[in-house]
Amino acid sequence: MPEKMSTMHIRPLTSLLFERYQRDGFLLLPPDFLSSGVLQDAIALMPEILRSDDPSRVLERDNATVRSVYGLHRTYPQVHAITRHPLLLGAVEQLVGGGVYVHQSKINFKAPFSGDQWEWHQDFVYWLQNDGIPKPDLVNASIFLDEVTEFNGPLTFIPGSHRRGVLSGKLADGMPAGYEDAPAWVSTLTAEEKFNVDTSVIDDLARTNGLVSPKGPAGSVLLFHPNLLHASAPNLSPFRRTVLILVYNSVANTSGGVANPRPPFLADPDVRALRPLVPTATEGMPR
Ligand code: 6CS
Ligand code: FE
After folding, report:
1. Would you list the domain boundaries of the chain?
2. Closest ligand to 189 CA?
3. Coiled-coil annotation: which residues (predicted)?
4. Which residue is closest in CA terms to ligand 1's atom 1?
């Protein structure tokens, strides 16, 4: 049962789940955490999102397969509504400790047979170095739009690694191979990580803390810390592994400004605190 409801926002995480996130750096919530309408709304949008020939769409190294599309909460009202789902927003506020806005949203498609890797990395260093976000007071919320199995390139974590702080600030220079003519901001979105964490660090931490790949049916929600070490292998299976990732940031942790701001679809300049969708007389609880 959710803890006592605050006047404004629901606090759906029990103290057990809250502490598990603090310990491991991630939390996998079952599909019934969000109403099924959320999943249907997001899935219904995918054909349109895939067709969008927009700078926010990043292709794989094969220059044909769609890797990711960014800024969806700005483009599609249905996605913006998902960011305000009372249980999702309430859980994120509990973990951040206050009001939040969406810094970045994306769909990672991880297409069948051709969805490429994400090398070992931490996310926060990208938002620190590229967007001037001062502290790791963010939460990644990954909503599984397909079933995630051991076969279709699941996210793999090193549990507890979020407590080691920023493990790499070394920016690999130049544009990744195949993206030489792309805008500079594409460099941190491809299969070649720009802030590479040294394999000796991965080796050491994986041996002490182990490796975990949270798997689950479509509709599952995976919350994870911006300093948690993670990677995912190419998808060699015939099964798609699409996830919608919402990056929530504390409204008390906004950027102090950077010399070359990234486009709004990568770093949203609208930092107003999100309010939960409320049941309306006609529609009842949001989908
Ligand atoms: O540069 C970024 O914002 C993105 N890059 C990576 C590797 N993860 C975080 C984020 O989605
Ligand atoms: Fe990442």
Report:
1. 15-250
2. 1
3. none
4. 188
